[in-house]
Every structure is written in C-alpha cells, then in structure tokens.
Specification:
- The complex is a heterodimer of chains A (83) and B (153).
- Chain A has three helices and five strands.
- By secondary structure, chain A is α+β, with helices and mostly antiparallel strands.
- Chain B is α+β, with helices and mostly antiparallel strands and 153 residues long.
- Chain B has helices at 11-18, 58-73, 104-121, 141-152, and strands at 2-5, 30-37, 41-42, 45-46, 49-54, 80-84, 86-88, 93-101, 124-130, 133-136.
- In chain B, strand 3 (41-42) and strand 4 (45-46) form a beta hairpin.
- Classes of the chains: A alpha+beta (83), B alpha+beta (153).
- The interface between A and B is medium-sized, with 16 and 28 residues.
Amino acid sequence: MLTIVFFAQTREIIDQSSLSLDFSPPLSDLEALRQQLASRGDKWDLALQRDKLLVAINQEMSPWDTPVKDGDEVAFFPPVTGG
Amino acid sequence: MIAIQQHDFDISDLYLQLTDSQLNPNGYGAIVTFVGKVRDFNQQQQVAAMSLEHYPGMTEKSLVEIVAQAKSRWPISQPIIIHRVGELLPGDQIVYIGVASAHRKAAFEACEFLIDYLKIKAPLWKKEQTENGYQWVDARETDRGAADRWTEQ
C-alpha cells in the first residue's frame, strides 16, 4: 500500500488531500506513479504537470527516477513559498 | 529549537533563550536574528490576508536537516527557527531565525544561510487574499538563486 498526499494548488485542483493506493508492480519510480495518477482525468493531469511540481518520498524531496516501494508515503506539491 | 506554530512569537523571549549560557557552553559574542513579516503588497496587489499551509512532519524534518548543515559549516550554537502557519494579516510576524556564535561573521552567515535554505527546502506554501480573490504565491527564481550562492563558494 502507498500513501499519497497532496498540498497547496495540487491538492486544490484535484480536491483531495490524500489517498491510498495498492502497490502493484511494475510501478517503478516516482515518474511512473505521477503518470499513473495523471491519467485519472483532466483535473489530475492538470494538477500533476511535471514542470511545476515537486515530489517527496517519505518526507524527503526526491528526483523523479527514485524507485517507489511498498509502504512509501509520496507527496506531490508545487514549489515551496515559505519564509 | 524548531517550531511550526499558529500563534505569534515574542522576540524578547527568544533572545533570552539564545543567550542562555547552558545552550552556549562555549560562550558567544554575537547574536544575529531575522524576523520575516507579512507584506501588505505583492506583485503590485494589495494583500488583505494570508494563509500558510505546510506538510506536517516534513517541515520539521527539513528544518532539522538545514540546521545540521549550518552547524557543520559554522561554529554556532543550536539555532532557533520558528515558522507560523494558518491565517495571518499584513504586518504579522511569519518567521524567526536566531543564531548565536563566538563571532559575528559566523552568526550573520549562518542566519542568512538558514533563511535562504528554508525558503527553498521547507514545505510551506503561502496563499494571499487580494482584491482578485485568493491566490497561491508563486515561487521566485531569486530565492533559488539566493540558496544556490551557498554551494558556489
């Protein structure tokens, strides 16, 4: 099982803050997961455009080719604007 | 100390904590603090209010990481970082960074490093209320550039 969480604009566009996903190989990396979620519909595709999206795996920002494994928490969000 | 909180902070209390000799066993001769506040304008628009969202858990973790980097780079005591979340108004304090060191150069540099890195690493997002409604604040390239400076030296 994967836990997927969304923040800021990303969360607002899909109108959902989290979801659980059965982990089913051959899901290989974060980019594959992004594409799988983006194919859920227009809102998902819009929210998960890669050019303005960051991704964290187990609360650590990670490159798109990072492998995903069962039990991971994956977060999608826009570039951060704190401070 | 690292804290993510809704309530305001009192800089005089934090100053006392920074100068607590138990936290600075090696002594200090310089204290540098930074306070970030909510502006009442952004991108030529009046800002009436702001709300700040964060990723609980990861925010704290990312700040622990940048504090560790600062401490490995400069001889500083344990810094204090406070970031507020939730609903804020123009003029409100948002963020506090406090650093103590034996000498001013390390304290100035570490403080600037901490705020520069916080701005690109900590999962926090600002949403402003303007006359055109609510809008998310765009990330700035200049913030990325400010942080990159520290790796070019």
